[in-house]
């Protein structure tokens, strides 16, 4: 299989195997008019298997969304065919409008225009809680 390198864009590497499409949807990549390579189940010495996303565009990626969905991802910024910056992610302390609160009694269920805000309650178990009703969201 031959996948071209990109000139200017972003490479998302070390994605948990089988989850690249979830990232694709969460980042809204289907709205971009550029080449996007989704490489699934690549052999990895460190992870066994992994996914990779290559975006051939100067796309402003939301690092909080990536950190929430998969904090092990490495983000590489590519310019003129060379990696100019590599970023490791952390789990964000707070996320806004990435998830919806599932509690039917939460104020966000009644007030549709209210932002869904979750804070990181337990980093080890990747548990976020709703800022308004304290309902739990487990992201595994």
From TrEMBL:
Record bears the keyword Metal-binding:
yes
Q: Which InterPro entries match?
A: Asp_carbamoyltransf_reg_N (IPR020545), Asp_carbamoylTrfase_reg (IPR002801), Asp_carbamoyltrfase_reg_C (IPR020542), Asp_carbatrfase_reg_C_sf (IPR036792), Asp_carbatrfase_reg_N_sf (IPR036793)
Residue span(s) of domain Aspartate carbamoyltransferase regulatory subunit C-terminal: 94-139
Does the entry feature the keyword Metal-binding, yes or no?
yes
All copies of the Aspartate carbamoyltransferase regulatory subunit N-terminal domain together span 1-89
Could you list this entry's UniProt keywords, alphabetically sorted.
Answer: Metal-binding, Pyrimidine biosynthesis, Zinc
Q: Tell me what this protein is called.
A: Aspartate carbamoyltransferase regulatory subunit
Give the source species. Answer: Breznakia pachnodae
Q: What is the lineage of its organism?
A: Bacteria, Bacillati, Bacillota, Erysipelotrichia, Erysipelotrichales
């Amino acid at each position: 299989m031959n996948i071209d390198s990109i000139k200017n864009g972003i490479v998302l590497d070390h994605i948990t195997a089988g989850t690249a499409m979830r990232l694709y949807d969460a980042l809204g990549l289907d709205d971009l008019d550029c080449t996007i390579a989704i490489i699934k189940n690549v052999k990895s010495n460190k992870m066994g298997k992994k996914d990779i996303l290559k975006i051939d565009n100067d796309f402003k990626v939301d690092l909080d969304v990536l950190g929430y969905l998969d904090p092990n991802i490495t983000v590489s910024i590519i310019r003129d065919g060379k990696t100019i910056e590599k970023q490791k992610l952390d789990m964000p302390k707070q996320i806004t409008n990435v998830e919806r609160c599932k509690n039917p009694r939460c104020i966000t269920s009644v007030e549709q225009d209210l932002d869904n805000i979750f804070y990181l309650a337990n980093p080890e178990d990747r548990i976020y809680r709703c800022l308004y009703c304290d309902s739990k969201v487990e992201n595994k």
